[in-house]
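Example 3.2
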Amino acid sequence: MEEQGIVSVTCADKRAHYRLPIRVPIFLKGVDVNGDEFFDLTHTVDVSASGACFLSRRELAITNDLLVSIPAPVDINIASPEDYEFKFPAKIVRVDNGLMNLHKKISVRFKKLLYDKS
């Protein structure tokens, strides 16, 4: 919608990839605002090809790097279980502090798309 030179853009228009509202367990590895390294288990709120939103009790800063790992079952008959590791380097792009909840919603952008094998 354009009115007197102002263009209105909705959030959906800004998104390059569809967000799937799905709860998936994930491991997070990173450094919190106090400089302490951590390795936590949490779950997603939603996931897209380019990022994810998850819950955390940690105090995390925007622009911090994280490693997001999705646990997957491993076939014991395969010689290289590393092929089943789903690790995604990511950067924090948004932190929503919950007023009534101890958990914060953390949004990250993956450094490469989920389906990009390169």
